[in-house]
Each structure stands twice: as structure tokens, then as C-alpha cells.
């Protein structure tokens, strides 16, 4: 029997112009209703499975992005929402922008757009949920291999 919990989502605005943030919020409203996939919005990285980042990474928030990612329990997935989060976007050549989210942490799903559309975001998050399930399954298989190996050693 497979028991799985609802995927909890954490949204972090790296250095967005707020265009993508409004669309992320729109995705959570009853019009687009991302909660129909069982998703719960959280403000606590320790409860989150999916990190959605908007905006490019800059010199000031690079450490924050890394800290949030490290505080999330494994397995976890990261969604870069909007072209700025994917590769720095129109701010790419600014003096303080380091680049997209993958400059500092691994990204699982890239959702381009300026601003990102709620429909595209929902599509990206459903891909992220599938990847999260795959990572959970791989972790279970790895753990059972370890137990099997340790039993043989005894
Ligand atoms: S992708 Fe466009 S809307 Fe989104 S943060 Fe960048 S400039 Fe703003």
C-alpha cells in the first residue's frame, strides 16, 4: 500500500519584479485552484517538498536561497518560475545578478515566461510532483537495499 502526503509548496521571491509573484498567487486562487492537486502553501522550509522560485539570484540573496534549500527535507524538488528564475531573464546583465536559480541550487523543472502564466506554472508543478514521487520511490528502494546489505553482513 502506498501512503503519500500532500505536496507542500514554498514560494520564494529572489529578485522578481513581482510580475511572476502575482501569477504564483493567482495559481493558488479558486480561478486556477492549484489546491485541487492537494497542494498546501507553507512559509516554513522544514515543511516544504516543492520550492518555487521567482526572479534571478543576486549577490545578496544567494545565501538565503541556499539556506532555504538546505532546510527543506529530502526528497525535494525545485521549480524555477519565469524566465528570470530560469536564467536571469532581462536582468541577466545587471551588475548584481548572478544568474538563474541553478547558479546556486539544483533545479528540477524550468517554467519560462515573462510573466509566467498560472497554467504553465500548474503544468510545471504537476511535473514537479511526478519527480518528487520518483525521488521518494528511489529513496525507499535505496533504504531497502541498505537494510538487505546490512542483513547479509550480520
Ligand atoms: S520573468 Fe518577467 S515578470 Fe517574471 S520576474 Fe522576470 S521580468 Fe518580472
Give structural notes.
By secondary structure, the protein is of the alpha/beta class. It is built from 4 helices and 7 strands, in the order E-H-E-E-E-H-E-H-E-E-H. It has a single domain (8-153), classed as Rossmann fold (3-Layer(aba) Sandwich). It has helices spanning 19-28, 62-71, 83-87, 118-153; strands spanning 8-13, 40-41, 50-54, 57-58, 77-81, 97-99, 109-111. Strands 2-1-3-5-7 form a 5-stranded parallel β-sheet. The two termini are 29 Å apart. The site of iron/sulfur cluster (SF4) has 13 residues, from helix 1 and helix 3.
Quick overview:
Helices cover 40% and strands 17% of the residues. The chain has 4 helices and 7 strands; from the N terminus they run E-H-E-E-E-H-E-H-E-E-H.
Q: Give the mean pLDDT.
A: 92
Rg computed from alpha carbons, rounded to a whole number of angstroms: 17 Å
- CATH-derived architecture: 3-Layer(aba) Sandwich
Number of strands: 7
What is the molecular shape? globular
Q: In percent, how much strand structure appears in the residues?
A: 15-25%
Helicity, in percent? 25-40%
CATH fold node name:
Rossmann fold
What is the total number of structural domains? 1
Uncertain runs are none
Bound molecules: iron/sulfur cluster
Structural class: alpha/beta
How far is the N terminus from the C terminus?
29 Å
Strand arrangement, largest sheet?
Answer: 2-1-3-5-7
Write the element-wise H/E pattern from the N-terminal end onward: EHEEEHEHEEH
